[in-house]
Amino acid sequence: MMNISAFAQEFKYHTVKKGETVYSISKDYNVSEEDIYKYNPDSKNGIEESSKLVIPLATKDKGMPAKTGSSSLDPVNFKEHTVKKKETLFSLSQQYNVEIDDIKRYNKQLYSKELQKGETIRIPVFRTLDRVVAKPNNISKEEIRQKFDKNEVREHVVLPKETKFGIARKYGLTVKELEALNPTVDVLQPGIMLRVGTNVSPDPVVLLDKNFKFYEVKPQETLFGLAQRFHVTQDSILALNPIIEQEGLEWGMVLKVPNPEEQDPENWVTPTLTSEAEKLQGDKVNLKDSLSNFSPKNLVFMLPYSLDKVQVDSAGTAAYKDAILDDRVLRISLDFYSGAAMAIEDAKELGISSQVKIYDTKRSASEVINLINTKNFNNVDAVIGPFLQSTTEAAAERLRIKNIPVFTPLSDKEMSGGNNLFIARPDQQTMSNTMLDYLQKFGKEKNVIIVSDAKSFEIKNKLSQIFPAARSVNAVDGYVSETSLKRVLLPATPNWIILESSSVGVISSTVSALNRLLRDDLDITLFTTNKNDSYDNESISNEDLGKLYFHYPSVDKEYNLEFSENFIKKYQEEYGVTPNQYAVRGYDLTMDVLLRLAASKDIYSSFSDYKGFTEYNENKFLYEPQPGGGFRNKAVYILQINPDLTLQIADDSQSNIFREFKD
């Protein structure tokens, strides 16, 4: 062991012994696992015997006692403090007897900016350590007997299925004290008499069911450690064991705790509410709850502005307005970065500061190569852009040697470039496969009907393999008749129509015919694995699609006004318009990159640290390795159009959900 000191924070080096885990080491030093991971990020992937860990010890100011606050504990309350002139984080830490890091932890904007006069911040209030650390109880059995001889005792008749743990808990004893009072009793038998104390709990002796068990507190255990061990909050431990609040935590104390062998692991943490459709792609991850790396992030945006092509009039003024109106790629670039800029500002409120550089690629691969050769990319954490395939491949190829991740935000094309290339948009194959997974999961016991034309034979074959009993309706001369559909529809049964075609005539005739058949009180739902441009034809109305609860895969969803209210309001105040899909994508992608960098040591580590998808206003991200190298976003929404023309994420967890909804 070796002591090192830095900035009034004390550390120790710990050499890992055989069989030790991060959890056991955190218990030995009375720190949280989170604190060990903070200073040893590689330990998240496991620790090996003889490896060395930096262990942060209790923080002490010179000449002052250690503060009672600790980042290894959860606060029991918060105080609001309005910052006065000349107040500093240090003075506030002295005033409230908490650590500066704890103030920052609950006011994350203070990681990236100074304390401001008039600003209101939250000050965490912690329990004192002497009430949550198990104190040794070295009293001998003889001393226990003498102690109780001087005080009143009572007798307890043992009931069937009672244990020493349960009886000790009932009378506020440790098991050691119960055994000392009854030295001749080895094994409990129903009907025998035990000497016990008079401090009787109001709870009945038989307290437990399969979801709970008794646990005897070990030396130096903490309330925080017990909460982690049993996957509940500290308040839950206190609610089950109010004696801790009264007497503190003591070695040998018998606690009522959840039984991990009987608990469903999915219920250890409050689950995120997601639809059954979304669960096909794993659990949702909220990176804002896991921020730990607050070093400034270095971002580079490579965008196809092509400002060199903007014409300049005789007065020497660039005609930017006309250029923007005439150039769609330039408009998209500006919209995208307007959203990205808002994400960068919002990230500051979370304590994530950024240093940003913007380069114009001029839509040229050679210009991208020139930028990388002439600009300093040594400390860049991530590159967002370029948009086009040729410029993206050039950037990824040249930055691969530096292992700098390159995120291309809008293109879904297959690209080469190496393992540092991240394609942030799912391709059509990914969307079709996600829809197939959805249909396979929820299409059981449905009357499945496949409507297709000759060009859609490949997807029809896949659907036929999933649904061998499915009925088929083939388009004839670019048309699907009402009669052919009516023959295969069943009454009093959910009819799932899977429409596969890119022909306007096939789609239009099918949708119109199905709407007419709804008059026969049939339960009909329409699906496709590919909502192509033909669905936007004026002959196909959204009203007709809504009546059929049309389901389709999508890269993005409509933003939820309630969830995104702050973003939309701030965007409108800044730019005077409602954000379009490119602005929202700029925000969502940039925020995801910044949060990943702040929740892990780098982008690559974030994918091993956090499994599942992330989600923001309109977009979600689930990157998976590509066979040819690099990563692609595989997160897809399954959306449905409702009769009132609202869009929602589909959820067919109940087979009769549509029938109930229509009724």
Account of the protein in words:
By secondary structure, this protein is α/β, with parallel strands linked by helices. 33% of the residues lie in helices and 17% in strands. Strand 24 and strand 25 form a beta hairpin. Helix 5 (141-149) crosses helix 7, helix 6 (164-170) crosses helix 7 and helix 13 runs parallel beside helix 22 (581-599). The protein is globular. The model is unreliable at 1-8, 59-72, 203-208, 263-274 and 654-663 (pLDDT under 50).
List the topology elements.
Blueprint: E1 2-6, E2 9-15, H1 22-29, H2 33-39, E3 52-56, E4 77-82, H3 89-96, H4 100-105, E5 120-125, H5 141-149, E6 154-157, H6 164-170, H7 175-181, E7 193-196, E8 212-216, H8 223-229, H9 234-240, H10 243-247, E9 254-258, H11 276-279, E10 297-303, H12 320-326, H13 328-349, E11 354-360, H14 365-374, E12 382-384, H15 389-399, E13 406-408, E14 421-423, H16 428-442, E15 447-452, H17 457-466, E16 471-474, H18 482-486, E17 495-500, H19 504-517, E18 524-527, H20 542-547, E19 551-554, H21 565-575, H22 581-599, H23 603-609, E20 614-615, E21 620-621, E22 623-625, E23 631-633, E24 637-641, E25 647-649, H24 657-662
Parallel strand pairs: 10-11, 10-12, 12-13, 13-14, 14-23, 15-16, 15-17, 17-18
Antiparallel strand pairs: 1-2, 2-3, 4-5, 6-7, 8-9, 19-24, 20-21, 22-23, 24-25
GO molecular function: lytic endotransglycosylase activity
Domain LysM: 12-55, 79-123, 213-257
Family: Belongs to the leucine-binding protein family.
